[in-house]
């Protein structure tokens, strides 16, 4: 008890001596209180604990990552059971690219099938004949839906009009035929009229 009284007396004496002292370089006496020091130490220890993840959290994270890698591995065909994580990632990326290419191919086939269906329902919708005449040379461009014997029938029209075919080209894309013909026309001075008559016969053939 006497020790406590002595401590109190000392504290009172110090407070009396420091009363009115305003030097900012020295903190107030209350700052040196043992209770405040304990509070600061407790807060520092709490922050330190927050910064360091617990072993259980780290174990849970590793288990979750292992599960994700196992799921990826099960989705990739022909991947070895003991494949490394790097190998799993590489094969996953390659497999995704392969699926994307397959998807694009399926979209292309679907579009071609839809277009073919439309052409079947309206076979003459995309048929056309264009002709350009320069002197006694005419350039024909024929577009039509593919059908058996069509090319032979088209050249039969040129043969009927007794024109000389100088060059010809045939291309087929998504069931559509495109045929170009460069022909020498002898229209007895009316080469444009002769080319138009050939065009009329070609249109009759297509429609």
Automatic annotation (TrEMBL):
SUPFAM superfamilies: HLH, helix-loop-helix DNA-binding domain. GO terms for biological process: endosperm development. Residues 89-116 form a coiled coil. Residues 49-99 form the BHLH domain. Transmembrane segments: none annotated. It holds the Pfam family HLH. InterPro entries: BHLH95-like, bHLH_dom, HLH_DNA-bd_sf. It comes from the Eukaryota. GO terms for molecular function: DNA-binding transcription factor activity; protein dimerization activity. PROSITE patterns: BHLH (PS50888). Keywords: Coiled coil, Transcription, Transcription regulation. This is BHLH domain-containing protein. It comes from Nelumbo nucifera (Sacred lotus).
């Amino acid at each position: 008890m006497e020790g406590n009284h002595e401590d109190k007396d000392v504290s009172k004496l110090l407070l009396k001596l420091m009363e009115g002292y305003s030097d900012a370089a020295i903190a107030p006496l209350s700052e040196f209180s043992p209770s405040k020091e304990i509070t600061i130490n407790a807060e520092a220890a709490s922050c330190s604990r927050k910064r360091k993840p617990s072993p259980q959290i780290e174990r849970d994270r590793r288990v979750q990552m292992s599960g994700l890698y196992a799921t990826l591995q099960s989705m990739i065909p022909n991947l070895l059971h003991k494949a490394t994580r790097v190998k799993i990632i590489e094969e996953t990326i390659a497999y995704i690219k392969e699926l994307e290419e397959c998807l694009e191919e399926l979209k292309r086939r679907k579009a071609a099938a839809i277009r073919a269906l439309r052409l079947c329902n309206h076979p003459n919708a995309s048929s056309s004949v264009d002709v350009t005449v320069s002197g006694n040379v005419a350039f024909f461009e024929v577009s039509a839906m593919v059908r058996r014997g069509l090319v032979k029938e088209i050249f039969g029209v040129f043969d009927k009009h007794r024109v000389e075919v100088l060059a010809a080209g045939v291309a087929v894309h998504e069931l559509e035929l495109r045929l170009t013909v460069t022909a020498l026309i002898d229209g007895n001075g009316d080469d444009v009229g002769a080319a138009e008559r050939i065009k009329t016969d070609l249109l009759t053939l297509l429609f």
